Amino acid sequence: MGQVIAVASGKGGTGKTTLCAGVAACLAAEGLRVLCIDADMGLRNLDISLGMADLAPISFADVLSGRYSLSEATPHPDIPGLYLLTAPVAERPETIRFQDFGSLLETVRDYFDFCLIDSPAGIGDGFYFATLYADRVLIVAAPDPAALRDAAGTADQLHLMGKQDVKLVVNRVTPAAFRALDWTVDDMMDEIGLQLMGIVPEDEHVVLAAAANLALICYTDRGAALGCLHIARRLQGKKVPLLRL
Fold it and tell me: At 145, phi and psi to the nearest 5?
């Protein structure tokens, strides 16, 4: 049975969506069947980070309504095994029954090895919608005090929801940021109270790949792409050392 993983963040600007797309693409490149669901209704951008901006993917609301089946999820043009259900344009979390989305995810577990859900930033209705039925949650934080505090608040909310498997990803990391904070990775883990799933460096190739309408791993195998690959392998239970900056 497959795993459903929500990718969340306490605030915008952490690179949550690009991290979600990068890890999903790496899992598919490892030979797994992977579904991405953009749950950021109103601000959907996951297709851009996946290199699928020129396509017209169906939304998860289309599947919930019965207009399309799960088997019609949009395939990635370059990465076999990777599929996308985008967010609906005219819907909001409060207009969709949470139970219906949960039932969809039960079916997803039967057809895919991994499903990554791109959650809206913050802890509003969209956050609860995206994380409620997830098996695991990755909280993405940037290495700055505000992002780390918001990540800690997000972790608290998830624990109140009964989520046990919650991990931290520190994204957009630069050596200068660590020096300015005078913090180590262990300090960040202690601050938020979560185990670390991975570190991903700041990387200009993220923007360049999106501009070229390519998934990050189709553009480069270094920097942020390598950080995403390490996370993808850890999600599979493999032992991988932390990325050295």
Answer: -60, -40
Task: For residue 111, give the CATH number of its domain.
Answer: 3.40.50.300
Whether residue 241 lies inside any domain: the answer is no
120 DSSP 8-state letter? P
146: which 2 tokens? 């505000």
What would the pLDDT profile of 85-125 be if each residue is shown by its tens digit? 999 987 777 788 999 999 999 999 999 999 999 999 888 88
Containing 79, the helix (H) or strand (E) segment is none
pTM: 0.94
Structurally, the chain folds into a number of domains equal to 1
Take residue 182 and report the two structure tokens written for it. 């005078």
Query: How many whole angstroms separate alpha carbon 227 and alpha carbon 125?
Result: 30
Q: Answer yes or no: are the C-beta atoms of 129 and 161 closer than 8 Å.
A: no
Q: Is residue 243 part of a domain?
A: no
